[in-house]
Q: What sequence folds into this?
């Protein structure tokens, strides 16, 4: 009698469909995935520390998660260890580290002072981060890309959004007393950052080939980086506040640069870049 499933043959026609065996996966491919998992652990630990009222450590863990999540892809490309599994894992980690973790830490620290308005603001930011990441994935997977995509982001990138949205927490560490008024102001600011994430505002990425530094400015640039790191270690929250304000201040200049090169003030929503293509009518 014939069996419903053909027997497995080690070198038969069904062997290739099973994918690579575990022993055949090189270690260099596992390293980026381990970094991604560590980033998720850091983000979730930040949430736990926030509920334990250990806010400085919580923010530090969220920022560490954002840092790890930002380097895993670069390490994968450096090791030539990119994979579809790693890409999916990284996308799932992004929503935790750039959306859920910052929103919950912010809510526990100050947004709860605004009651339901604070929770609504946290929800809006988290959903905006998810929509921003989904749009980025769709645009990154297209075979044909516009020239401007190597120079500009569409909207504020999610890692930067996680850094920006925590500004009320930085201010709280500097002595501003959390209260209802501060909670409502922080809620409005959180919604604003969520809007910047999903907007079509052109944000300069610094990835284009034309983004180069003159040879005589290389050493001063290195010294500025060293100075920034030193101030970040010595005056952490003051430096983070200045960083957030400086980043927000550069957004109009990036949009102005876009307007001079391509016209208009927002990235185009052409059919090639549409996140929601029209579906055919049902039969």
A:
């Amino acid at each position: 009698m014939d069996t419903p499933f053909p027997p497995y043959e080690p070198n038969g026609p069904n062997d290739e469909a099973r994918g690579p065996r575990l022993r055949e996966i090189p270690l260099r491919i596992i390293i980026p995935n381990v970094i991604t998992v560590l980033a998720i652990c850091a983000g979730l630990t930040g949430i736990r520390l926030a509920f334990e009222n250990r806010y400085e450590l919580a923010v530090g863990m969220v920022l560490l998660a954002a840092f790890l999540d930002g380097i895993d892809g670069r390490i994968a490309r450096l090791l030539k260890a990119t994979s579809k599994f790693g890409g999916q894992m990284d996308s799932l980690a992004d929503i935790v580290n750039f959306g859920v973790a910052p929103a919950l830490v912010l809510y526990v620290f100050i947004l709860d002072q605004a009651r339901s308005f604070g929770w609504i603001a946290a929800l809006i930011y988290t959903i905006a981060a998810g929509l921003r990441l989904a749009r980025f994935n769709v645009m990154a997977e297209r075979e044909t890309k516009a020239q401007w995509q190597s120079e500009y982001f569409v909207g504020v990138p999610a890692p930067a959004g996680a850094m920006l949205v925590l500004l009320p927490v930085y201010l709280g560490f500097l002595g501003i007393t959390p209260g209802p008024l501060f909670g409502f102001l922080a809620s409005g600011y959180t919604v604003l950052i969520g809007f910047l994430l999903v907007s079509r505002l052109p944000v300069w990425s610094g990835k284009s080939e034309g983004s180069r530094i003159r040879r005589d400015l290389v050493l001063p640039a290195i010294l500025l980086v060293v100075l920034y790191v030193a101030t970040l270690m010595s005056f952490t929250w003051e430096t983070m506040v200045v960083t957030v304000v400086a980043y927000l201040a550069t957004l109009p200049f990036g949009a102005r640069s876009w307007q001079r090169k391509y016209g208009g003030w927002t990235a185009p929503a052409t059919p090639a870049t549409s996140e929601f293509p029209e579906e055919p009518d049902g039969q």
